[in-house]
Amino acid sequence: MPRSTSAVRRLALLVVAIALCTGAGWQLGRLAEPALPPPSYDLPASGGHHH
Amino acid sequence: MATVTAAAPADREWTRLVTVIGFGLPVLVLAVVPPLQYPYWQWTALVLTTPVATWGAWPIHRAALRGLRRGDAGPDVVTALAVAWAYGWSLWAMFFAGAGTTEHTHPVELLAPRASVTAQIYFEVAVVVAGAGLALRRYLPRVEHHDPGEAFPPARTARWAGRWYGPVTLCLTGAATGFWCGAELPTVAVPAGLAVLAIAAPLAVTEAVPVAVAAGLRRAAATGVVVGEEAAPAAAAVDTIVLGRALLHRPVAVTGITVARGTAEGDALAVAAALAGHSPDARISALAGAAAFPPSVSDLAVDAAGSVRATTGARHVALGPPAALGVEVPDALGTPDLVVVWDGQVRAGFTVETGRHPGAAAVVAELRRLGLIPVLLTAADEADSLADGLDVDVVLPAAGPAAKVAVVRRLRADGHTVAVVAGPGAAHLEAADLPVAVGAPSVRGIGLPAGAPEALPGALRLARRITGTAEIGLAVALGAALVGLPVAAAGLIHPLLAAVVGPGVTAAVVLNALRLRR
């Protein structure tokens, strides 16, 4: 457990910041999706799954 | 009774590092050399990586947990997360995404895979991050560090960067992963997030400055110069250097002796030594050490020129310049500066040299080459003799300590950054941006050995190199982060490449700083 309230506050802030950045990234990704190149379905000839 | 002795921590850490390398190397080789990937090779990689990512990386995980308990998300947290991410994702891919099948191959790519399959495994990333993390944790503490005070600007930047580096990396990891998931490219999200963590983990932005400062101070100490930690940034900014007799003046030296016929040299030196210590004149008192056991003297009389007359035994003896003593010097004795006389006859003559240090002109020329404006600040009566033939810009005779302080203050008020070279305790030393004390260490500035003005340019150059090396190291580390992190987040590099570049940059920065020691 974190040792002090200031440590808890810092960790909580960090978690919130990461969550906010992840959410913002997600939104940006959704907006950018039509402009992005489609994923390559070509896999090496030596094997793998074809979808 | 058997005694169980726990291995010393250092031994245990060495064993851990060797084990991690021993288990990790085959994983790395299997991953990057596709022809070696026999059926179900990935299960071998899993078996070999498991101890590396858990027991091997345990010191990293433990340090990360301790940091989190204090509320710190530093490099340990980033490294531990990178290992956990690479290993955990690979486990998931093996058991739930089909990477454990016999057809699984692992193409060698520098760019992050954009393949549609989620069955990518990153065991090799886990072992490289863990191995590099352990190696850096083992070797970086052995490199001498000296954390300079707030007066060292690169140190302030490094501390600031060190504080924000971990949290920014974690937020960027979240943003990159979120972006690629939002764009419905989860197969990019995993390697992109992992590459961000892997490149950031060992990028020690906090290493460059303390290693460079420690190496520079070590180098300075080896040359007999004391460079205070605040001297390094000040030396980089200095444009004007105030010189004086403490640096340029040479102590009095007796350079020749001639003895009259019938006089033993030892007698002449003994009498000179017995009288010299009583003279206030520096040139005469320089003879005080001429004999180890001078005779005792009585009836001392010292005149205005510093000449000394006395009685030793039954002899009336005198020492001083011939003119002051009113004696004729025999031609055989040449033209000595000082003579020793007894029984009314000149018995020996001494040539005494003083004045400017013979290396003064070369030192001033060297200071000019360093881009500094040399200013001579000295008493008016010796300004001409000190400045003669020297390439100094301005000669500013100052009467006393207060006047010298005023001159230094005026130079600074005119916008110059001023170094002052003076004897310890000189008032105008403290008025300088960079004090250079001759014959004493200086806490705030540079300490030069007495009588060695030629050490000054080297000391200034070293102080500048310390700042330059620290700044370059910091710029490289921060630059690698500023370029590497966005590139990794954009999914443009493979996590393995990121995991190699990070420790490579750190090692290069530290090794470059250590060059200061040579």
From TrEMBL, chain A:
Domain of life per record: Bacteria
Protein name: Uncharacterized protein
UniProtKB/TrEMBL annotation, chain B:
Entry keywords, A to Z: Membrane, Translocase, Transmembrane, Transmembrane helix
GO BP annotations, alphabetical order: copper ion homeostasis
GO cellular component: membrane
Transmembrane regions: 17-34, 40-58, 78-99, 119-136, 470-490, 496-514
tRNA processing keyword on record: no
GO molecular function terms attached to this record: copper ion binding; nucleotide binding; P-type divalent copper transporter activity
InterPro entries listed in its UniProt record: ATPase_P-typ_cyto_dom_N (IPR023299), HAD-like_sf (IPR036412), HAD_sf (IPR023214)
Recorded superkingdom: Bacteria
Name of the molecule in the record: E1-E2 ATPase
